């Protein structure tokens, strides 16, 4: 079982998963990858020199290349391990290679979602998401994430679904057939198990006087 699976509660499922757009790796590739390639090239070229320059040139080139190469690998691992999730209950941000940091916002506390996309963001399908919540954090920013429109859509759809579920559990929820249809929708979406569906259906029928 992976780290993400350990974060999920009982009957909680991941609906959508994304991370920062791969374009964020362009800067470390240019900043670290190119210098590493140049130094490795110099080390290889040093192998064609006449002794006593051959071995020192190769060793120096490879040793210097190891520094930007290590920084490049670290940047790529950091990118890969920073994940954004929409589950059936919350929005989760996971970051860190060895030491993990997890930030989550309950969908029930989300007040608004702001999507910001530049021209390049629309062309390459990335953008910034701001999640406005009623918690102490207030605003949770997800920068340059891939497929932000889908992320926002899944999050808002699930929030609406949770609102429907809460409405069913409160008195005076509406006409019987409408409530039963909503229960069926929740069951098909996986928010209610078959057993929970039957229990809530019977409780609803009893409450509405259909014993």
Question: Short summary of the structure?
Answer:
Residues 80-138 form the YdbS-like PH domain. The chain has 211 residues and is of the alpha+beta class. The protein has 7 helices and 7 strands, in the order αβααββββαββααα.
Provide the residue-averaged pLDDT: 84
Low-pLDDT runs of 5+ residues are: none
Distance between the termini: 44 Å
Largest sheet: 4 strands, antiparallel
Proportion of beta-strand residues: 15-25%
Order of helices and strands: HEHHEEEEHEEHHH
Give the helix/strand class: alpha+beta
- Total domains: 3
Total count of helical runs of at least 4 residues: 7
Helix percent band: 40-55%
Question: How many individual β-strands?
Answer: 7
Transmembrane segments: 29-49, 55-73
Keywords: Membrane, Transmembrane, Transmembrane helix
InterPro entries: YdbS-like_PH
Domain YdbS-like PH: 80-138
Can you give a write-up of this model?
- This protein is an alpha+beta fold and 211 residues long.
- It has 3 domains: 3-20 and 84-147, no CATH class; 26-79; 158-207, no CATH class.
- 52% of the residues lie in helices and 22% in strands.
- The protein has 7 helices and 7 strands, in the order αβααββββαββααα.
- Strands 1-2-3-4 form a 4-stranded antiparallel β-sheet. A 3-stranded antiparallel β-sheet has the order 5-6-7.
- A hairpin with a 5-residue loop joins β3 (90-95) and β4 (101-106).
- It is elongated, with a radius of gyration of 26 Å.
- The model has no long low-confidence stretch (mean pLDDT 84).
């Amino acid at each position: 079982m992976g780290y993400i699976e350990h974060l999920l509660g009982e009957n909680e499922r991941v609906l959508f998963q994304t991370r920062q757009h791969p374009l964020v790796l362009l800067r470390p590739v240019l900043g670290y990858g190119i210098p590493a390639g140049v130094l490795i090239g110099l080390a290889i070229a040093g192998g064609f020199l006449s002794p006593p320059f051959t071995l020192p040139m190769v060793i120096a080139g490879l040793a210097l290349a190891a520094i930007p190469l290590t920084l490049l690998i670290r940047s790529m691992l950091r990118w890969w391990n920073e994940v954004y999730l929409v589950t059936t209950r919350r929005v989760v941000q996971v970051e860190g290679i060895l030491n993990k940091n997890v930030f989550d916002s309950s969908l029930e506390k989300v007040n608004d979602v702001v999507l910001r996309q530049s021209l390049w963001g629309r062309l390459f399908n990335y953008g910034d998401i701001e999640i406005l919540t009623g918690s102490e954090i207030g605003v949770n920013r997800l920068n340059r994430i891939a497929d932000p429109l889908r992320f926002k859509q899944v999050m808002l759809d699930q929030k609406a679904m949770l609102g429907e579920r809460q409405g069913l559990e409160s008195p005076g929820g509406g006409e019987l057939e409408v409530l039963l249809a909503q229960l069926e929708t929740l069951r098909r979406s996986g928010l209610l198990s078959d057993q929970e569906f039957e229990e809530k259906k019977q409780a609803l029928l009893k409450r509405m006087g259909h014993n």
